[in-house]
Amino acid sequence: MYKLVFFVPESHAEAVKQAVFATGAGRIGDYDRCCFETRGQGQFRPLAGANPFIGQSGELERVDELRIELVCEDHLIRTAVAALRTAHPYEEPAFDVWPLSEF
After folding, report:
1. What is the dihedral sign for C-alpha 64, 97, 13, 11?
2. Fold exhibited by the domain 2-99
């Protein structure tokens, strides 16, 4: 089992979540589409050659984003990450994948 955590602008959160959920990620027992959301503010500065969804090259940008956390079975994690990358509006979405211990 893995925990997948990603950061997405609030305006695109539902679309990205639905793409990830469609892979089977976010299932806990007899429940699906399970996740936890935290609001925050992300910041970045696009460098030369970047094609930012928001902001301009060389300028610091701050965006209201959601941190989405969910679990994902081992055999689904690569598909879930691929769906995240495809649905996310950013050129380089920020995400973490952590293996979980079974208890």
Report:
1. positive
2. Alpha-Beta Plaits (3.30.70)
